[in-house]
Design brief:
It is built from 14 helices and 12 strands. By secondary structure, the protein is α+β, with helices and mostly antiparallel strands. It has 3 domains: about 45 residues, Cytochrome C Oxidase, Chain J (Irregular); about 260 residues, Catalase HpII,  Chain A, domain 1 (Beta Barrel), CATH 2.40.180; about 100 residues, Hemocyanin, N-terminal domain (Up-down Bundle), CATH 1.20.1370. The strands form 2 sheets. Strands 1, 2, 3, 4, 5, 6, 7, 8, 9 and 10 form a 10-stranded antiparallel sheet that branches. A hairpin with a 5-residue loop joins strand 6 and strand 7. Helix 4 crosses helix 13, helix 5 packs parallel to helix 11 and helix 12 packs across helix 14. The longest helix is centred in the C-terminal third of the chain and has 18 residues. It is globular and about 85 Å long.
């Protein structure tokens, strides 16, 4: 038998060649199946286990490989090797996703879109896990499970519930900035190629002199922004619920590679201490007038995965995956994600999820992690599984030590009110955003809000609507009036502190 024949013959997962792939072994031509047909067992048992737990959020996604190319020198801010010189290319994997829906949900749902990047750098994998919005609904991770529950299914009806969503948003005005973006036409992008991406959180750059600068990451689509109207998005759910996945695959297959201009905003520690907004509050943006966008490079997607499950479904992102020259900030939501994301991946894929090819660092890794399910790298062989030891030469390189972070105050561990005085203006930035919209964008946003809020039901309907309307009025009078009119709300009683719905 030739090597070619040996390499192509049918085998079990353990490598045993076999022939009877389509017929079960039975007692006679019409008799019962025999217990000893182990091929049947292997096929059915593996089939029963083909589905790994879907992500709690960002369950449905699309992804591709590509390159990040440095076009401008930012080494004065960071020593990260990914930015080390103009012209440097780094391989990346980018996964897009909807946030609240299940794997079978439609791509055109009104929802934020995940924008998660894995950079395969020589100092390890760097994950930048963001969205297509520069802000988020909440700013403390302790609120995250409650928020996500409201975006999922009602425990009684098992249906999506506008009442749950708007009840939560109206009780948490910090959400207003993100809600306004979601309810604009940017909540329904035409494709993943036609939307911006953001790191959303505040991160740190550390340069060769151990100086820290705070940074926000922006990815500006070079295809141009294109969005569905609410009517178009609703129609697309029925026509092609996978339209964004199809668009991404087909555009790359035909050589129309999606590209984004990569930019950053930079803030010094001194500026962070005096800025008018808390620079670590993910419900706020940094004004680009105060902190202009600086060009960094170009991101291009140019390679479709050869197998969706192996790459897109099994890719595992975590904000905890940083590299030398890039670090964290006191952003509370970021701090919570540092814990939550790796834990979610260990649950979903196992303790050794970083050995899966799409997650594996292509450069050397040395550590003392051992054992666990699906350990496929030899498990360290006979090498020591503890540190320090007298037998290997692995060492902790002091040049990678991060500098201390000066928070400018005597730090005390306590439970601080996230919306205390000075942290409780949830209206200025959403109002500014609304006033920047064109008349058509304003009308579409109001229409989308009205359509979404009309689903609020139950005995608390008026309470929830009135509470949310107060937030819209505080952001912008014309926004509040437009939504109230669309919902048929009589605002004549507003001066007395009450609003009545018809």
């Amino acid at each position: 038998m030739s090597d070619q024949e040996k390499n192509t013959r049918l085998t079990t997962a353990s490598g045993t060649p076999y022939y009877e792939h389509e017929d079960s072994q039975t007692a006679g031509p019409r008799g019962p199946i025999l217990l000893q047909d182990f091929i049947l067992h292997e096929k059915l048992a593996h089939f029963n286990r083909e589905r790994i737990p879907e992500r709690v959020v960002h369950a449905k996604g699309s992804g591709a490989y590509g390159t990040f190319t440095v076009t401008h020198d930012i080494t004065r801010y960071t020593r990260a090797k990914v930015f080390s010189e103009v012209g440097k290319e780094t391989r990346v994997f980018l996964r897009f996703s909807t946030v609240g829906g299940e794997k079978g949900s439609a791509d055109s749902e009104r929802d934020p879109r995940g924008f998660a990047l894995k950079f395969y750098t020589e100092d390890g994998n760097w994950d930048l896990v963001g969205n297509n919005t520069p802000v988020f609904f909440i700013k403390d991770p302790k609120k995250f499970p409650d928020f996500i529950h409201t975006q999922k299914r009602d425990p009684y009806t098992n249906c999506k519930s506008a009442t749950m969503m708007w009840d939560f948003w109206s009780l948490n005005p910090e959400s207003l900035h993100q809600v306004l973006i979601l309810m604009s036409d940017r909540g329904t992008p035409i494709s993943y190629r036609h939307m911006h991406g953001f790191g959303s959180h505040t991160f740190s750059f550390i340069n060769a002199e151990n100086e820290r600068h705070y940074v926000k990451f922006h990815f500006k689509t070079l295809q141009g922004i294109k969005n569905f109207t609410d009517e178009e998005a609703t129609r697309m759910k029925g026509l092609d619920p996978d339209q964004a996945q199809r668009d991404l695959v087909e555009s790359i297959d035909k050589g129309d590679f999606p590209r984004w201009a990569v930019k950053v905003q930079i803030m010094t520690e001194a500026e962070a201490a005096t800025y008018k907004w808390n620079p670590f509050d993910v419900t706020k943006v940094w004004s680009q007038k105060d902190f202009p966008l600086l060009d960094v490079g170009v991101l291009e997607l140019n390679e479709n995965p050869d197998n969706y499950f192996a790459h897109v479904e099994q890719v595992a992102f975590a904000p905890a995956h940083i590299v030398d020259g890039i670090s964290f900030s006191p952003d509370r939501m970021l701090q919570g994600r540092i814990l939550g994301y790796p834990d979610a991946q260990r649950y979903r894929l196992g303790a050794n999820y970083e050995q899966i090819p799409v997650n594996r660092c292509p450069f050397a890794t040395n550590n003392y992690q051992r054992d666990g399910g699906m350990r496929v790298d030899g498990n360290g062989g006979s090498k020591p599984n503890y540190y320090p030891n007298s037998f290997d030469n692995i060492y902790a390189d002091e040049k990678y030590k991060q500098p201390a972070e000066n928070l400018g105050q005597n730090v005390v561990a306590d439970w601080y009110d996230r919306n205390s005085e000075g942290e409780n203006d949830h209206y200025t930035q959403p109002g500014d955003l609304f006033r920047l919209m064109t008349p058509e964008e304003k009308q579409n946003t109001i229409s989308n809000i009205v359509g979404a809020m009309q689903g609020i039901s139950g005995e608390k309907r008026d309470l929830i609507i009135n509470r949310q309307l107060c937030h819209f009025f505080r952001a912008d009078i014309s926004l509040g009036l437009g939504v109230a009119q669309g919902l048929g709300v009589d605002i004549t009683q507003h001066a007395t502190g009450t609003i009545h719905t018809n």
